[in-house]
DNA sequence: AATGAATGAGATTTCATTCAT
DNA sequence: TATGAATGAAATCTCATTCAT
């Protein structure tokens, strides 16, 4: 019962952060939307920032977990395509968080540490996948990390543009993944040595 | 003379936004750092948000211009690699803006319109380059746009991680570009049909 | 309970507006005098102007009501004298408002609409009384309105000068009313019995 | 030449005070309308209030002078009517001041002394006229003053309502004066003893 | 646990006035 | 005399947080 209120506060905050951003959303907006009293807020959260961190932590944690589960393991075949596809699905299912994440930046001062940790976590998952697949046999550790970050940036901005800005629905996810997976191949043909180094 | 003060306000704001973010930075911080009086601020800017928009507009405009100039034209050879390389250079030279941009998100409510326009502009430049090179002959318009956005997201997050978080210096730019340009090739080789579409 | 604070804010504002005028009175003065916190003010009033309008509306409303009740009905006998007498009593009992009203003008930009409506309301009451008494049988509507306004102006300035500037007490009201009621007759008749007191 | 600027400042201020009131009008508005520089203002006036006082003093002085000249002397015949008529003409010709006067109240804190003195001056002129005409032979001094103030209040509010609110033009002045002069006569007939008491 | 009125520090913004040129 | 950029004190208003009930 008490937890009901906590949940409704989080729910309300999530919506408001999504629509207006963290700074524009007032505690009074949140409690009003949640249907609880002003003081109740502080029964469950130490401060407004505490709520934001709490939400960010849990949400980014969920995304990270989802990616961990969906983008690892026995993916040898069409590995990259499937990793992208699954990541897109995760972002699609967490559109709200995607919106908040992009609306506050990778380093919104309030949650800079959380968001940094988030990116690092995902990057490590992807790097490990690369190693598992033997994808880039002669890349150094640093290079693998760059490669991993590049995948994250790619998927994230595209997810944001497609799902949030242009409101693509679930039926487009596969074709988007195909574009992302195949996107370098043609270049390869034109200028083969490009990344060969 | 008068413009000196305007410049020092912008300079100070740029530094403070970079360090603390827009919301944490007070007008009083800015004028103090700029060495001008509180009222002087409002001689040059209608409001704090006006300053932010002004800065964002001009900075993102510069980046967009730089990318336009450096990533188009006769790039046939090693086109993608050179586009990535030049983009990284632009981001490196605009580290401050990169930091602010990422610190406030792709859609910081205050400058959402400006930043949306910025991404769209760059995307169009890249799409056009793709068309000029004949890079993805059988991609639809929507697919080309996705491809373009994917490049932007890739370069931007990597630039942020390398230049801002990890403080790589200018000597690494080329090798980062090589990783980004070549990053899919090996995948291609290992799991050839991956993105083949 | 909560309304206590609202009341004390109004009370304090009334005093301060009376003493120093609206523009000179700061919200901080009001809350200080009312013994509440700065923020409390905005719990009950949207703005300083909102408070002023609120006060003006309610006070002028009270005066208008008092005049309506006391200056109409079966007054045939000595009608004008009694109307003036009652109006003076109303103004005397609302000295504070009288002072504010005169201190801010008939058309203080902040409450111009309210004060205009106030004068119009009273004028209409008086015009109706004139009609009820058959006082000016061959006056046009416009002329009756002018006559009504003239009575208001007369009573108001005299009330201000006597009650506010010269601090006459309640015992003088009747004799003032006599002067005002009789003041024109003598002139008319060559002014023989003048103020026959 | 220098005085040109002084004049244009006064002119501009007069217009702006009339339209928006003293407090709403900024010095920057005035100098802008007057076409001079900000600093020039302080070459001619010590402060904004100084300008206001200066304007009020001169304008009210003009009205007082005009009333003095037009409402005294050999007016025996129809004395009251002619005094009212002339006063209305004075107010009509000084509509701007009338508007400012009413817009700021009889006792706008900034010019309270000036405006008090103004009313007192006019009152004395009228009282003297009453004495000259032998209008109210057995009125005490205090009663004569009340009578005089009543005339001022009457004319002023009617002038404001007719000339400012309803924009009557010069052709109506005479008929307004007739209404004001005759306004008590009919009452007299209906309830003869009215002021007798 | 729940309430919501009250708080007050602090932020943004305004604008009369000054002063170096 | 004239300028107008610069000033900074001060005012209004906001809102996260507290606390008595």
Automatic annotation (TrEMBL), chains A, B, C, D:
<dbReference type="Pfam" id="PF00440">
    <property type="entry name" value="TetR_N"/>
</dbReference>
<dbReference type="InterPro" id="IPR001647">
    <property type="entry name" value="HTH_TetR"/>
</dbReference>
<dbReference type="InterPro" id="IPR009057">
    <property type="entry name" value="Homeodomain-like_sf"/>
</dbReference>
<feature type="domain" description="HTH tetR-type">
    <location>
        <begin position="3"/>
        <end position="63"/>
    </location>
</feature>
<keyword id="KW-0238">DNA-binding</keyword>
<feature type="DNA-binding region" description="H-T-H motif">
    <location>
        <begin position="26"/>
        <end position="45"/>
    </location>
</feature>
<dbReference type="InterPro" id="IPR050624">
    <property type="entry name" value="HTH-type_Tx_Regulator"/>
</dbReference>
<protein>
    <submittedName>
        <fullName>TetR/AcrR family transcriptional regulator</fullName>
    </submittedName>
</protein>
């Amino acid at each position: 019962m008490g937890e009901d209120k906590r949940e409704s506060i989080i729910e309300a905050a999530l919506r408001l952060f999504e629509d207006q951003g963290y700074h524009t959303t007032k505690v009074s907006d949140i409690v009003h939307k949640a249907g609880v009293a002003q003081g109740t807020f502080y029964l469950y959260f130490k401060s407004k920032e505490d709520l934001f961190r709490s939400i960010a932590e849990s949400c980014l944690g969920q995304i990270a977990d989802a990616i961990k589960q969906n983008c690892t393991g026995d993916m040898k075949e069409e590995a990259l395509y499937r990793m992208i596809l699954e990541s897109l699905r995760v972002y699609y299912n967490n559109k709200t968080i995607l919106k908040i994440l992009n609306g506050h930046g990778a380093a919104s001062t309030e949650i800079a540490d959380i968001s940094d940790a988030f990116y690092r976590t995902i990057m490590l998952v992807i790097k490990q996948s690369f190693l598992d697949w033997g994808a880039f046999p002669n890349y150094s550790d640093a290079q693998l990390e760059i490669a991993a970050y590049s995948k994250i940036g790619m998927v994230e901005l595209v997810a944001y543009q497609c799902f949030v800005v242009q409101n693509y629905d679930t039926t487009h996810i596969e074709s988007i993944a195909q574009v992302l997976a195949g996107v370098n191949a043609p270049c390869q043909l034109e200028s083969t040595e490009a990344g060969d180094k």
